Structure formats: structure tokens, C-alpha cells
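Final report, results section. Input specification for complex C-07:
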Amino acid sequence: MDLNYGPEYDAFRAELRSFLDTHGHEAPKGNNNPKAPASLAWQRKLIEHGYTARTIPSAYGGAGREPDILKARIIAEEFARARVAAGLGGQGISMLVPTLLEMGTEEQRVRFIEPTIRGEMIWCQGYSEPGAGSDLAALKTRAELDGDEWVINGQKIWTSTAHIADWMFCLVRTEPEAPKHEGISFLLLEMATPGLEVRPLVDMTGSANFNEVFFTDVRVPKDQIVGRRGEGWRVANSILGNERDSLGNPNATLTRFHALKALMERETVDGQRLIDDPVLLDRLMAVQGKVLAMSANDLRVLSAKVNKTSGGGANDTRLARMIIKLEGTELRHELEGLAIDVLGELGLAYGDNPLLRDGGSWQAQYMYFLGLIIGGGTSQIQKNIISERGLGMPKEPKFPTARS
Amino acid sequence: MDLNYGPEYDAFRAELRSFLDTHGHEAPKGNNNPKAPASLAWQRKLIEHGYTARTIPSAYGGAGREPDILKARIIAEEFARARVAAGLGGQGISMLVPTLLEMGTEEQRVRFIEPTIRGEMIWCQGYSEPGAGSDLAALKTRAELDGDEWVINGQKIWTSTAHIADWMFCLVRTEPEAPKHEGISFLLLEMATPGLEVRPLVDMTGSANFNEVFFTDVRVPKDQIVGRRGEGWRVANSILGNERDSLGNPNATLTRFHALKALMERETVDGQRLIDDPVLLDRLMAVQGKVLAMSANDLRVLSAKVNKTSGGGANDTRLARMIIKLEGTELRHELEGLAIDVLGELGLAYGDNPLLRDGGSWQAQYMYFLGLIIGGGTSQIQKNIISERGLGMPKEPKFPTARS
Amino acid sequence: MEFALSEEQVLLKDNVDRLLAEQAPLERIRSYADGSEPGIAHMLWHQLCDLGIGLLLIPEAADGLGLTVLDAALVAESLGSAVAPAPVLGSGIVAPYLLAEVPDAGDALAALAAGELRVGLALSELAGAREDSGVVAHNGKLNGRSLHVLDFDEQSAYLVADGKRQLYLVDPQAAGLSGRSLTTIDRTRATGELSFSDTPARLLTTDPDLCARTLALARIALAADSLGAASTMLSAAVEYAKQREQFNRPIASFQAVKHMCAEMAAALEPCRAMVWYAAHKLDEREADAVMMACHTKAHIADVGKRLAKTATEVHGGMGFTDLLGLHYWFKRIGFNRQTLGTPAQLRREAAIAQGFIDNTAQNSATA
Amino acid sequence: MEFALSEEQVLLKDNVDRLLAEQAPLERIRSYADGSEPGIAHMLWHQLCDLGIGLLLIPEAADGLGLTVLDAALVAESLGSAVAPAPVLGSGIVAPYLLAEVPDAGDALAALAAGELRVGLALSELAGAREDSGVVAHNGKLNGRSLHVLDFDEQSAYLVADGKRQLYLVDPQAAGLSGRSLTTIDRTRATGELSFSDTPARLLTTDPDLCARTLALARIALAADSLGAASTMLSAAVEYAKQREQFNRPIASFQAVKHMCAEMAAALEPCRAMVWYAAHKLDEREADAVMMACHTKAHIADVGKRLAKTATEVHGGMGFTDLLGLHYWFKRIGFNRQTLGTPAQLRREAAIAQGFIDNTAQNSATA
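Structure output:
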């Protein structure tokens, strides 16, 4: 049990802090255009210093460093602490690049990775469909080979960055006769392709955090496939687990806890601070207890990754990892909801309301986290996974008339 | 909307109060032997006055009155108010007698009903088996016809009054080749029959609230069957719904709420009354809110029974009735658990502990109501019923290898 | 003994439901919510008045229908079911109930009955004053600010509570009165704030009992509104689950989904009787009517909060989008929860109303 | 950076688990619980001492093993897993930790190390005095009553807290001391009360920090005990569900049962890391160690309460009976919840420890 990172890491952190002190002012502020020259320049500088795209081989434009989970965490911590824009994320960088490194051809890696990590090529993910959510493999968007081109027809939904993306990676059904999971292929396509239409999908927060994408005879060169025909399910699953880990992040929850506590110190009713209300305080503390439990759980998972522990018994962290999305998103939703209660009628303020507290983030996040409870595998799917993979309980018997 | 019972009922209540004033002292006190002469005499007097066995035809020894739900409730209320032993209950009176009236032969009615309602013949119910709980129809205790007798082998469990019963009504499998629900018969047998053994079943409260009953070649006259061979499932279900209604009774919960409130007024920590602790008070009030909701629900159900409403829309009370067991038992368990928290370390006192509060009832009922959450159809079975019968949702697809 | 709706009540509710189904379908709710058709609210109010809703609680002697709080609660339930933006709470429920008991308010009652008076509600003071808010009366003039005025738009009067739990009627044109509309999550309700600067006001009552019953009425109406909204969300979830197929079967056949729906139904169903009970007690002026109103609103707020979340989850991603409009119901339930007392505040009030604790004994802010 | 058990820790826990599996099977627990074999508790204690458990927290300088709070928490977890009636909390955990820091307590520490001192814990005073209880010290003598003494049986000393959070060691033979055993729901623990009447006592410490850390240690150990007990209940529920068939399939294949188990696992799994974290912070004497101990016990008490209920439900009627003995775990979790602070008390202490509120500002009894 040793929560110190050790001298090598202390030095790394010091060096990073000095970098941030010196160069932090060059970073873009706020939600600017991700392709503004300053943004792209900042991203290039971060890659140069190994503060983003850290483990991508230099042959593909990355920093070419060894994987190091602690350094990755130090980078995240220090950029957050300094409130300086960290390296770009997004589904291209977090999902497609690892996929190409794992399953792409050399030509695909050379063509796509460098512009992606430099922020010059923005991607969106086309997986879910209106009829294929929890049952993703039921997807129906089809691609037929016509000469040297795939011809795509159908519809995708929940494509978060479709409105700003240059390219999309997507799952389409190419082998309609094959069993459900074996008829899917993984294609790459330009958003500017004729026949492709993006419509913003307004959600309950009032913003369009997602999009719908419609395909009408969208033609894509035959070689823009990752893996072979019918291998798309496997290609996609090689990285799908990474997405879930990031939902319900305990560090972000801790930050929100502190904001909630500050809110309760600031706000008053009949002249009394709300943190002095014993009932509200008890709820705040119950939330803190849960946050601390998830933070400790996160340390345990991190340690196992760092030390590549795969021991059984108490050092087996598979279950600890599997529950993060379920518990983390529910906790965050609970926390945001408590802030609304704390604010009483003011908790209803939204949009342009001048009485808005903390920029209206409590209501927005309360709703957004309900979306995250549903998205990325609903809580019901998470519980299936935990019971089956975590506890070894049997799958439900298959429905007799099921296709698969 | 009129919560007054009206003059006829006010008169009935007055007459009953006067009866209780005059005769209440004759009632047996405490948990005496149910067959003590005083107990039997009291029961006979109650039947005479129509205060128990009220609607049983006088031909079978009952009071022969018209069914009247309000009078039944007034009787329950007034005996409780006066803390005088009400008419006998038990599974013979509440379940077997209605069954015989509905499905029994004239001979069976004449033979069994009068001694049963007079308290001279005590019954237990033999339905559940170790392997047949939620899936009651999977019961395996078998009865084979050998000449003029059924020969029973097998085991029953959860037979609450087996240790004091004279007779048992039970479900046994008589047609092993028939489909699961169609192979069951409803038999009556004397507990004194050779080959029948009763073993007390100690539960988590430390008491034996239930028993196990073992059958080894127990021989029963052929005519002690209610309904025909293979009709037992239907016979039993003609009255099973009545049992569930009584679990989670809101009036009993209200009584416990008042006891909890009194406890919080009485107990102190560091000299302060616990009801003045805002966090505990908030939990108490949340429980009161739930109790009031269930009391109101109960009034609505009662009204529909009294007025034989079967209207749709807001006056359709099927769902209101269906949820009583689930909500009522959970609420009661929550309430008892709150009392334990209120008592802090003293809440752990049990058995002969001289520091016991309220006779140790908080812990005992906390556990007993966990038993009731499970018994009489687990909460999971209740939710199946509510979703299927109450909300019209489909049954789960049948497991392909299922027998039925 | 009868604890059920009368035939007339069933008919009343059916009529309101039918009107709202025709006149306030989802597209119209959207048009009101996005600001493109602000007139819908008052159009609905007038149509409801044609059904007599405006006269419900006005005594027959004042040319009203002289009906009961329970009737008003049924209307509120229907409004919640349809997330209708009709400003009924102030003009159709709270104002007539109060004015009918105020001596010398015959003029105002007559104006109400004639459809000439429309009343917004500035009652937040009764549920605790936030920083920068608070209304103080002195010599018949009001000063201060009321932050969460209900039925804010186009009113011809505001019912205002001050810090002493006294109630006033204020003319929108009165000197020193200014107001602005405030956006909340619930775009089906017009909400705003009022600022008073030596604003003349007509004192209606200093009677604490009448004030308490008026507040209880508003709370019952909000609870009924949530009951209606939650009932709609539950029905929508059950219907969606029956239609939606995943893994080659309707998701309504998955035990997890069934149990989510069963839990919603089991929690919600008693709330219907609870609203009736609270309304009935207020109608009968029973001693525990105020406590019952507090509990009813608190309990339904908690049930509603969970139900709104669960029903959204049953709808999966679609529930999160604007496409089905389910969020209007979610937000309406959220609005009712926070308005005129959060559950913890209400539970504390219920404890005080029953004498469980001394009002002044605890230095608790809102709990 | 490593946040995991060391090989030595895994080995330690394995050894304890193995010993308890052999020496404290369910039949033995029953024999202890029904009073037929009271000697089992001390037999287990001696067997655990043979593994070195008695020496864990005794410094090496005093011939102990000088191990950590985390090691002690692992032992407590194992005891909870097995619902073992061994009196480790006082003699193996709390007393050595405290005595090691008390100047001039070398004699007591040596007696502990030699296995000659067995210590019961009369610390309830630290979690609020109930009516009729309370311990007052004056001139080195104690008066009053301590109601919930842990590890009560056959002790050679009691560690007693007074109302000023000072800690004393009391000889069971001391003048004016009387005691009686008290039955609780948890028959795997010996509990009793002590009455003091001018009873001479040896003052160990007046240091509030040491007292706070000692209490934090006891709470972490109780939390770890519940973690162990809850883990066993969860495993038992999963195994039972896999074996038990209803409707011609294992009930583990019903989504409702699966989700009950998944919810238990999801709530419980972070508790393991939380206990480690709390223990580690106390080992490092971090500033937030006391707050972390409060939160850990409170959180696990809440998770444990729900889990004990759910695991029992998964067992159906069998879970309610004595046949499987599952209730020993249910009651152990219940005992730990109520002992040395209920969750609401602990959360309030955690708030005070962090300076969120002023200790004296609220007239709250226990919340």
C-alpha cells in the first residue's frame, strides 16, 4: 500500500507543471473552434512534449512514448489543476486510433492516424440506430458492394460529433444472410460524401448534444473497411470497453461534490446557510461517502492497471472495474439532484434566467447524467454484464423464436 | 366522497361497544391455549352475536348474516380499540371454510365448518414445499389411491400452525402424468394420522413461527378430497387471493407508526429527545407519508368493495389492491428498521435483555416482516403479477425445455 | 361510506381530459414551450372556463359552482397529465378558494366569476425566503422581492404573501411594482419575479388558518399535477416497452423492465387515493388537513422524482431526446417538487402541524 | 504506486480464513450462539494468537509484529466473513493500537503481547449517552454506566471512555464495578453492561487526537467486519440462486434475481477499496483519517443493511429460516451498524471533522 508515485513521477509532474507555467497561456480558452490555428498549434506542441497522443508511435505522428498509466493520470490531473486545455479527445482519438493500431492496415494507419491526433481530422462514431440500442448487433444500416464501392443506406443515431466531424467510422450490415453478429463490417467514410445528411438531435437538456445521420446511397471506396467483411463486430468490440470506463469518472464527481458543498455554504434560506440544515447536510454527507467509496475503488483499479496485477482474491479488480459505469453515473445523477433540492425553487432556474446558479449546470448535469445512465449501455445492460461476467450467473434462456 | 358510515353503522358500532363494555371481561387474555374452555365459550358468544363467523350460514353453525364489509371493519376496529380478543382467525377459518362453502360437498360442510368456526377444530395449510415456493405448482408431495385410501408421501413446509392443528388441508400430486397444474388434488387429513411428523421450523427471529411436516405412507380416506382429482389447483386458487390482502395491513402499520413516534419522544441521547433530531425526524415523517398513502389506498379499496364498484378509470381499484402486499410489507420493514436506528446500540437488545424496549418487538418485527416480504408470494412474484395483470405487460417467454 | 369519485367528478375529469387531448396535444405544448405560440396558455384557460373550471371553487352564492377541493385536484391532475400550460392554479383554484372566505372581497370574487380577474401567485415567502428575496409589508405598502411567481404572464392581479404569512392582492399596474419573466426547466409554466418598492397592496387576510389552508390547497393542486404527469409517464413507459423490440422481443417481456414498471405502479397508485384524501380533509376542514397536504405533496414529490427517472430509462435513448417530448413531463414533475416547499421542508412542517416538535426549538434552515 | 494487498497481506488473510473455515464452521457458530459451547470464542482467540493475530498491532519494540491498521482490517474482514465469535476487536486491535501510544503503558502492552491481558471495550460514551447511561470520572474514579460493552466475556481489563473522551483501563475485580451480560440479536458477539461506583481506573490518555484515532480504528474494524459478512452473504446468494430451481430453471437465470445480485455487487465492491483507503489513511495519520473512518463505517452500514435484506430475499423462505444460518450474517451486519455510531451520527461527525459545520452550532441530538 503506497500511494506515492515515486521520484520518477514526481519529477515528471514537476516538469509538466513548469511546462504549464511557461506555456499554459498559449492554450485555447473555452469552446473555440477545434480547428482554429491556435488550437491546432497547441495540440502539436502537446504531442511534441508527449503530453497527448503519448503512446502513439512516432511513425504515425505520435509522441512514441512507452505506455505509463501514472504519467497519463498525472497529465490529466495537472491540466485539470491548471485549468489549461488538455490534449484533444473525441471518438477519433480515443476509439478509432486504437482500433486502427490494432486492426487497421499499414496504409490506413499512415493515412488516418496523424491527421486525427493532430486535430485536423475529426471523427464521429456511427454505431447505434433507432432500432439497435441495447441490442446493438441488431443494426440494419446496410452496405452493398457495387463495383469498387460500398453503397450505404440507413440511419444512425447518437452520433455526438457528427455536425463537426470530417469522417465517420461506422458499423453496417454487409452480410444480410449471416448470423446477426457475423454480418457486420466496420467502414470509414467522409462526412462530405453525397447522400449523407446530419440532423441535430435535441435532447432533454434543450441542447443538441447528439445527432442523427441519414444515409441515402452513400458511396464509399471498397478499401475503407477495417478488418474483413463480417468482422466488424469483433473490430468494434476490441475497443468498446474503453468507452464505458470514462463514464462516471470519480474525479469529476469529486469536483462536483466540492462545488455542491460550496453552494450549500453560499446559499441561504431565511438567512441560514443551507449546509447548516441537518437534513440537507446528512444527504450531502451520504453523497460524500459514496464519492469516497468510488474514489477508493478507482485507486484500486488504477493500481491494478499500473502494476498489471491479475491476481485472484482481493487483488482481482475485474468486478471493481465493471461496476464503475453503473455506480458512477447513478451517483453523479444523485449528486446533481441534491443540488437542485438545496436550491429549492431557485433550482428550477434554467437557460437565460438571471438567477441561475453555477451557470445552470446543476439542472443540465442532472439531466445529462440521466442520459449517461441510459447511454453507453443502460443500467439494465450493465447489471446483466455484472451478474453474468462478474458473478458467473447464467444468461437468460434464449427466446425460442430468436434469430440468434 | 363520504367517509361517514351512516346511521345504521353508527348504531351497529354503538351496540358493539356496549357489548364489549358488558362482556369484554369474559374474553381470554394473552396467548392462552386456544381450546381453553373460556376461549371456546367466548368464541361461541361472539358467533351468537354475529361478531365472528358472521356470514357463515347458520346451517353450518355460523351467524348467518348478510355480508357487510363495513360491519366487518367496525368489528375489527372496535375489538382492537377495546383490546379485547376478537373472534378466532387462522387458516381453517379464513381459508378452508370459504373453500368448503365454495367447492365442498354438503357432507364436508356439515362435518367441518361448525367445529372449525367454533374453534374446536384447528387447521393448518399444507401448500408450500422445499422445492415448490414461488413455483407452487411444482409441488411433489404425492398421493396414490390404494383401495379406499390416499397414501401420501412427501414434505410440506411453512405450515404455520401445524404444531397445534387437528387437521390439515393440503395440495398433493395425484396425477403425475398430467400437466403440472392439472395433476394436483386438495385433500383434508387429520394430523394424528400415523406417518405424519411435525417439526418446528426455527426462523431468523429465533422463534418457530412455522413448521415442516413430513409424510410417510400417511393414509387418508378417499372421500376427504375437496373438488375432483386434479382440480386442486383451482380449488386452492379460489381463495388464495384473500391471504395476500391481509399482509401489509395499513391499520397495523399505523399503530406501529404511533408506537415509533412515542419511542422517539421517550428515548434520549445526551439528554435530547430523539424526535428533536432533525435527521431522524425527517425519516419518521417520510415513513408517515408512506403510511398515509397506504391508508388512503386502503380506504379506496374498501370503498370499492363496499359499493361493489367495478368502474374503469379512477374508480378501478384492481391495481390499488394488487400492490398492497408489496408496498405494505416493505413499508412495515422500513418502519421497524427505523426504530432500530433510533435506538442506536439499544436497538440491538433482544431476548432476555433487560434493556429491551417495547418487548423487543422492533427487532422481531423487522425480521418477521422480511419474512413476510418473502412469504405469501415474494416481492419478485408480486412485481410479476403487477406488471402482467395490472399493467398488461407480457409474460416472460417460456423457457424452451420447460415442462409446462 | 364512499371513498371514490362521484359520477359528476368522473364526468368533469373526462371533459377536461378530452378538451386537453384535443386542444393541447404535444405539438401545441412544444409551440408554447419554444415561445412560438405564447397565446396557447390563455386560450386553454378560456376553453377550460367554457367548461366551468373557472367557477369550480366560487360559491354558488357568488354565481360559481361551489364545488370542492377534490374537484379542483382532479382538474389539476388532468392538467399535469397533459402538461397543459393553462394558468389554472392561480385563477381557478387558489384565488377563488381564498377570496370566497375573505369578507369584503365580493368585488374580486365577482370579477373572478366574470372571468375578468386573472391571478398570479407570489407565495414563495411561505416556503422560506432565499437570499435577496423576501417581502415586507408596512402601512399597506409592500417592499422586497418575490422570486418564484406562478402563473406569471398577463395577469390582472397578483396574490402576494409577506414574511408574516399575510396575504395581499396587488395590481400589476401598481406604483413601485416591477417584474420580469424567469426561465425555468418547465417551459409549460410561466414563472417570474416581482419587485416591490412601496407598492400599494390590498390586504386580504391576516388569518393564519386561512393562509395555511390556502397554502395547503396550492400544495394539493401541485401534488395532483404531479400525480397526473407521473401517471402519463408510467403509461407511456408501459406502452413504449410493449412496442419497442430489442433482442427480438418486446422489451416489456424482460423481467427487469417489467419490474421497473411494477415498482413505478406500486409507488404511484396509492398517491391517487392520497390526493383524494388530502383534498377531502381540506374540504371537511379536518384538523389534520394541513399536515395531510404537506405529506401528500412531499410523498408525491419523492415518488414522482423516482418515477420520472425510471420512466425515462424505460424509454432508453428516446426518453432522453426531445423527439418524444417525454421531458416535458419529467420537468413538470421536477417543477412541482421544488415549488412551495421541497419534501424535507414539507415533512418538517407536517411534524410541526402535528405538534411533534416545537416550531422554534430547532435552528434548522429548511429541514 | 500500489493500492493493493501485499503478498504478505494476502497470505495473512488466507491463513486467517483457513483457520476460521476449519475451526469456526457453521455448526460451531451455532453451538456458541445457543450457549452450548461458550468456550469457542476464547479457543478461537488462542488459535488466532498462534497465527500471530494478537501481536499484529503491537510494535516490534514491544515484541509484537508492528503491522498496520490495514492488516488488522483484513483480519476483521475475515472474522466477519466467518461470523466468528472470536474477541479480537478489543484485545487484538483496539487495545494494542492505543497502548502502544500511551507512555508508561509498557506493562500493559507487555501483558497483551504475552497473551495475559484480554480487553473488553466500553466505548459507547463516545457515540452519545443514552438515558440511564453515561460515565463520569472524578479523582481517578469512575461512576455511571456503560451500556454496550464489546468483547464482554472473560476479560482481564476493560477499556472505558468517559464523557470527556478520556480513556481508562479498569480491572474487572476493581471495587464498585459490576457487570452483566446482555443478549443482543447477534449471538456471535459477547455484549454486556458495566456499572461503576467510585471504581478506581487507570487513566490512559486525555489526548483527544489519540482518542479520535482509537475510535476511528474500532469503526474501521467494524466496517471491515461488515464488509466480510456482506461478501459472504452475496456469495451465498449467488450460489443459492445457481442451485435453486423454480419454474424449471435455476433462479439465477431470472433477470430479477440477476439484477438483485448485480446491485449488491455494485454497491459492495467499492466498499473493499474504501476500507483499505480508510485503514491506509489511519496508518499514515493523514489529516482526514478520522473523517474517512466515519464515512467508511456509515457507508458500509447502509450498503450492508440493504445487502443483508436483498441476499436474504434471494434465498427465499430458506433465507428466513434458521436452516441455512444465513441470519447470523444478517444480524452481524445489523450489530455493526448500530455499534459505535449509526450512519447519521457518523456522517455528522464526518462533517464536523472537516469543518463543514461548527460542532456546537446545532441542537441536534444524534444526527
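Chain B has a mean pLDDT of 92. Chain B touches chain C through 60 residues (CB under 8 Å). This concludes the modelling results for the funded period.
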